[in-house]
């Protein structure tokens, strides 16, 4: 007879297994507590005490890991279902994960084929009155996105990095006078291998593009994954601009975004950053960067920044970490700070959309950046998308 799924009536059986398996860590906790209370521990206050504490902490972590690993095996040593409460919650997660990804990616493919992204490309990007706003399916299906994908020679897909490129360009087009014909000066903070500097140079703008000094980036994954701008070459896209024009109009500067250097103040008609300010160490540092970036603007200048937006939780978020997640209250807070300095912030719009691709929240593991077909995704368990903030210095 096939064993039946454990139901509420088997709760007694289900709870016995975790107790048994967790016994080693309970024993270790008791050893640690006895050690902490002992006179020897107080006496050995120096390195010996610290080394013993480190060993006990490591042993505790190892014991917890192995007991949890045992709980999460699908079968026991006899090949029977590994019935316990954690298994009941977790047993189907991998299957659900692949179902979600398969259906979501298939939906993205079908929507593209049905023409969602195949808009007629207008000869000029129509004004959309962009707000400070989140990534949506409607934006990616707009005529302005079609125009900028065409200019960037990118095949439109439901991918939030493409939204970021188009959003920044459209925001600048709407706020920088003569943007389509060039003649302005801009600075791109941490451009990596973005195509924007090449297109902007081709449009006729003069640009400074920045990134962390190389020695500060090595070992943090940016260089290894091709996201660091070590040399101007990496920002050069031959399909968008010729080399002499690029060399003449684009210069690279290495700088930490946590210290926007004073000689840049008041030098630029526009500045932008994409997917960068969430990497500065904390939410406070990200917000400080936004405020400091305003200093580089001339009167009439415009800033556009895109970053991570945790739209699914207004209380809890990730802070003090290599990737932090901003919430609505943080954008409201920085908007108040900028307005307090006389800057004009494009109205904040936190609508994340309700079209199918807005409701599909992808889950890890994610494909390489350019191949993802999602606009919303789980980061550390939080529902996230991108948010773009636009502000200008009055003339
Ligand atoms: C995800 S990449 C984004 C690159 C590019 N904007 C893009 O969208 O492809 C993040 C970048 O932030 C840079 N970075 C991280 N911390 C930084 C800091 N404190 N100052 C300047 N750049 C930093 C890294 O070197 C990396 O190039």
Fold and architecture overview:
It contains 14 helices and 11 strands. Strands 1, 2, 3, 4, 5, 6, 7, 8, 9, 10 and 11 form an 11-stranded mixed sheet that branches. The chain folds into 2 domains: 84 residues; 228 residues, 3-Layer(aba) Sandwich (Rossmann fold), CATH 3.40.50. Helices cover 41% and strands 15% of the residues. The termini are far apart. Helix 1 runs antiparallel to helix 3, helix 7 crosses helix 8 and helix 12 packs parallel to helix 13. The protein is an alpha/beta fold and 395 residues long. The N terminus is likely disordered. Bound molecules: S-adenosylmethionine. S-adenosylmethionine binds next to loops. S-adenosylmethionine (SAM) binds next to loops.
Keywords:
Rossmann fold; 395 residues; binds S-adenosylmethionine; 2 domains; alpha/beta; disordered N terminus
Topology, element by element:
Layout: H1 11-37, H2 39-43, H3 47-72, H4 85-90, H5 93-113, E1 132-134, H6 137-140, H7 143-152, H8 160-175, E2 185-189, H9 196-203, E3 206-211, H10 214-217, H11 243-249, E4 250-254, E5 268-274, H12 283-293, E6 297-310, H13 328-340, E7 344-345, E8 348-349, H14 356-359, E9 361-362, E10 376-379, E11 382-392
Parallel strand pairs: 1-8, 2-3, 2-5, 3-4, 5-6, 9-10
Antiparallel strand pairs: 1-11, 6-11, 7-11, 10-11
Helix pairs in contact: 1-3, 7-8, 12-13
In a few lines, what is going on in this structure?
This protein is of the alpha/beta class and 395 residues long. It is built from 14 helices and eleven strands. Helices cover 41% and strands 15% of the residues.
